[in-house]
Amino acid sequence: MIGSKRIERARTISIDQRGRIAPGELDGILGPRAKPAQGTMPIGRWRGEPVMVRMFDEERPEWPGGREWLGQLPEFIYPLLSTALQVATWRRDHRFCGRCGTATRPHGHEFAMVCPRCGFRGYPRISPCIITLVTFGRELLLARSPRFAPGRFSTLAGFIEAGESAEEALRREVMEEVGVEVGRISYFKSQSWPFPHSFMLGYYAEAASREIHIDGIEIEAADWFMPEMLPALPPSGSISRALIDHFVNGVAARD
Ligand SMILES: [Zn+2]
């Protein structure tokens, strides 16, 4: 799955401790074809060539961050960028066995760090989240977190907690964040979001109640918007924007 044990020549994506990525010579982030350096990890193939990730222990503030690359690179490279960032984060954060504290080693041909003492295997962590556009007829419920750029509103999102289904998490998050009850839910699509390891499951949710009560902490403002009068939205390429655009286009097609 992630390549043979002995890779003679590969292209390398170089990532620092903070997820900054070195500019490369191919598709923005891929380094020249070369013999892999010590400590690099294979993550797959790209344009027929093996690709490795190399973690740098020091910080390289001159390299652009992952989100900056995301805004610059074409969408087809997104899965590779996402894999590289998540594997790098996982290698940084799983150097020791979580069960017995011994230093771990990479598994030969799986995405796994193995403990040589107790045999425990650590895999890249993926954190599932729901992301949902709540609608009422033609209207969209959009909200803003204090972390957003000024004026920007987006869909609602939250982590799925241990023991919950995606549907349960969706109803709970919407109730907690905006106090709205949700009726019918329909699945849209998913997207890996490597900041640092989220996996977004996108849904539409029809509101069963209309009155909004925000929590004032995670959400500082929320409102119903008509498709013709939308506020500043998340950038294209994000699943939140795709949820909004797809709904608005559907409304326009029905009108
Ligand atoms: Zn162990």
Automatic annotation (TrEMBL):
A GO CC term attached to the entry: cytosol
Record field: transmembrane: none
Chain ranges of the Nudix hydrolase domain: 124-247
InterPro entries: NAD-cap_RNA_hydrolase_NudC, NudC-like_C, Nudix_hydrolase, NUDIX_hydrolase-like_dom_sf, NUDIX_hydrolase_CS, NUDIX_hydrolase_dom, Znr_NADH_PPase
Pfam families: NUDIX, Zn_ribbon_NUD
Entry EC number(s): 3.6.1.22
UniProt keyword terms in alphabetical order: Hydrolase, Magnesium, Metal-binding, NAD
UniProt keyword Chloroplast, yes or no: no
Domain of life: Bacteria
Cofactor: Zn(2+); Mg(2+)
GO molecular function, one term: metal ion binding
Top EC class for this record: hydrolase
Reaction(s) this enzyme catalyzes, per UniProt: a 5'-end NAD(+)-phospho-ribonucleoside in mRNA + H2O = a 5'-end phospho-adenosine-phospho-ribonucleoside in mRNA + beta-nicotinamide D-ribonucleotide + 2 H(+)
GO terms (BP aspect): NAD+ catabolic process; NADP+ catabolic process
UniProt key word DNA-binding: no
PANTHER family reported for this sequence: NAD-CAPPED RNA HYDROLASE NUDT12, NUDIX HYDROLASE, NUDC SUBFAMILY
Family that this chain belongs to: Belongs to the Nudix hydrolase family. NudC subfamily.
Name used for this protein in its record: NAD(+) diphosphatase
Organism annotation: Halotalea alkalilenta
